[in-house]
Write a structure and sequence with these properties.
Pfam families: ORMDL. Keywords: Membrane, Transmembrane, Transmembrane helix. It is a multi-pass membrane protein. The protein is mostly helical and 154 residues long. It has one domain. Helix 4 runs antiparallel to helix 5. The protein is globular and about 50 Å long.
Length: 154
């Protein structure tokens, strides 16, 4: 018997993103990060947007595609131990509203960054590589439960 578990889901790690207001909270955290970066002296608007894009892509990569298991004790008998957060989200179903949202947000940030950097080639290249390698490719259904070169297998 599990004392203190008020849910019937064996792994609540994949359903919390369905909570009310979580999408708005996520976007608010992105803007807070941008305003913190923008408040640093001697950082231009272009560099602030590039740093916001990079910070977002790196943090979400580690949060969604690197960390495995659950931050609490799930009741799934260790099934989630080898799955990343992205693989657990929405019980592994592809193309749900949550997964589409988490795919579109980095693209929108990239487009905003491209606009505010005035289409500078260096900023564009850095942000495009980050977008593709950290935010889009790991979310593809072809990479579901795939560990490239065995990295992060265990």
């Amino acid at each position: 018997m599990q004392v203190g578990t008020a849910h019937s889901d064996p792994n609540p790690n994949h359903v919390y993103f369905n909570s009310r207001g979580i999408w708005a909270t996520y976007v608010i955290f992105i803007f807070i990060t941008h305003f913190i970066v923008l408040s640093i002296p001697f950082i231009s608007m272009a560099l602030a947007w590039t740093l916001t894009c990079q910070i977002h892509n790196v943090i979400t990569y580690f949060w969604l595609h690197w960390e495995k298991g659950a931050p609490f004790e799930p009741l799934d008998q260790g099934e989630s131990r080898t799955l990343t957060h992205w693989e657990q989200l929405d019980d592994g179903v592809q193309f749900t509203a949550n997964k589409k949202f988490l795919l579109v947000v980095p693209i929108v940030i990239f487009l905003l960054t491209t606009f505010y950097t005035r289409y500078d080639q260096i900023h564009f290249l850095v942000n495009a590589l980050s977008l593709v390698l950290l935010a889009i490719v790991p979310k593809l259904p072809q990479l579901y439960r795939v560990r490239i070169f065995g990295i992060n297998k265990w």
